[in-house]
Design a protein that fits this description.
This protein has two helices and 35 strands. With 466 residues, the protein is mainly beta.
Length: 466
């Protein structure tokens, strides 16, 4: 089998040169060694590796004062490896390049057995087909699908690969806010808390009579469940082992798997305020100390590296998550007087959760990255860290939902998430709201409830395959 090579005038010199090499090489080698031995040319032909060179990215953004601007950056294409499937003969990057990457003139580095030529797939007409000899010094336009032909030195075998350079078609750094309208079913509820249990969003609040009411989003509608349970610690409801758990005076613990059917457990009457839950333990505050349990019967005091006086007193929020290194961590935050206080502990699969000591993050009086003392504090895992949102801060320095704060170091520092600026209309609603809560929907979006106004927000890159 021979690879037919056609050329136009502007490609003629380069292609003819390579054809001359191909034609003359066997004769030259044979002439030089005719008296000694017969030269055998390899029939192997395959691509060993293919790497993209430096790439440019151009995206529209805004300056700190809200003006439109264009940002141009460069990055190494090697950060996005090109996989080679020798069965399907497809070469592509499984991890798509960032939105806005320019691939009209890209230098590449290839390693192959044999000789290599390339052309664009769109060149169907034989008369227009141009196979150019591959040269790492020549740029290639990957806006169109590229064909790479690797021909054996013997000239009897070839493989034609298809090269696809994948690019995200949406800006991963852009955020989408949507006002989903009023949730009329929760118009009369106060002290609401939103959670996700078994992939369902459940909002729990209390009516004017002080009785617990829950709303479950099911089949694109809200199912409202009224109960006779009074004085339930709604702020302390936790998702523990696939069930929502609520502490109810005189009844022990109320449980539900869907927010529609609630059951009374056999747990004793409790006076613990639930604040966080891991996979194996639920945590509660009592008498100024922190405890945990696996069964709501045997409560054990937690080990702290600082005085219990530094534990949060109000607007307490907790969250448990698994870190990239496999460790499990519980983060606890809230307000003490008018300042925030943050605690955390982490353990590996080989260590004991109960024996692990809680670490108090001693604040710096001038630390600009300290978590604000937000009212209605909610903590959610998002965008590779822990996201904090809520109402106005107790010290008056932050307005309701003025900003979203992201910690990427397990609660040590909290920085304004500049890629997720809060929608102006949402800020206006939050300014006069009496309740703010939020829950994660799937892996990509957040639902934020401002009284009974529902908003969704999604950072596009959260939907990208990881």
């Amino acid at each position: 089998m021979h690879l037919e090579i056609y050329t136009r005038t502007y490609m003629k010199k380069k292609t003819v040169f390579w054809l001359m090499i191909l034609v003359a090489l066997p004769f030259v080698m044979a002439g030089c060694q005719a008296e000694e031995e017969t030269v055998e040319f390899s029939d192997a032909c395959y691509m060993k590796s293919f790497t993209l060179g430096s790439l440019k990215r151009v995206v529209a953004s805004k300056t700190s004062d809200g003006k439109d601007t264009i940002q141009t950056t460069t990055f190494a294409g090697s950060l996005y490896p090109m996989s080679i499937d020798q069965k399907t003969l497809v070469i592509e990057n499984k991890d798509s390049l960032p939105y806005g990457t320019k691939v009209n003139a890209v230098l590449t580095t290839a390693s192959f057995e044999g000789l290599c030529f390339w052309r664009h797939e769109e060149q169907k007409d034989e008369a227009d087909t141009i196979w150019a000899a591959y040269d790492s010094k020549d740029s290639i336009d990957f806006r169109k699908t590229v064909k790479l032909a690797v021909v054996s030195n013997k000239g009897t075998s070839r493989r034609i690969y298809t090269v696809k350079v994948n690019i995200h078609q949406t800006n991963g750094d852009s955020v989408v806010w949507e006002n989903k309208g009023l949730v009329n079913e929760m118009a009369d509820l106060t002290a609401c808390r939103a959670l996700n249990v078994n992939d369902r969003v459940v909002v729990v609040g209390q009516n004017a009579a002080g009785k617990m009411v829950s709303l479950t989003y099911q089949d694109s509608a809200w199912v409202r469940t009224a109960t006779d349970y009074a004085d339930v610690d709604i702020a302390g409801i936790q998702n523990f082992r696939g069930m929502l758990r609520a502490c109810a005076p005189g009844l022990g613990v109320l449980t539900t798997t869907d927010g529609i059917t609630w059951a009374e457990s056999n747990a004793p009457n409790l006076d613990y305020r639930f604040v966080a839950a891991s996979q194996n333990r639920i945590y509660g505050l009592k008498g100024g100390a922190l405890y945990s349990t696996t069964d709501f019967v045997d409560w054990q005091e937690e080990h702290l590296d600082a005085d219990t006086a530094m534990l949060p007193k109000s607007d307490v929020a907790g969250i448990s998550y698994t870190q990239p290194n496999g460790m499990t961590r519980v983060l606890l935050a809230g307000t003490l007087d008018t300042e925030s206080t943050v605690w955390s502990k982490g353990w590996s699969m080989q260590s004991n959760e109960l024996a692990t000591t809680w670490c108090y993050y001693t604040p710096n009086a001038v630390d600009k990255y300290r978590l604000p003392s937000l009212k209605h504090l909610t903590l959610l895992t998002y965008d590779g860290g822990v996201l904090a949102l809520g109402g106005a801060s107790h010290d008056g320095k932050v307005k309701p939902l003025e900003r979203l704060f992201l910690s990427q170091d397990n609660g040590v520092t909290w920085k304004y998430h500049y890629e997720m600026p809060v929608d102006a209309a949402l800020k206006q609603q939050a300014a006069v709201a009496s309740n703010i809560t939020a829950a994660k929907v799937g892996n990509h979006s957040l639902w934020i409830f401002v009284d009974n106004n529902l908003w969704s927000v999604r950072l596009n890159r959260e939907a990208f395959e990881k």
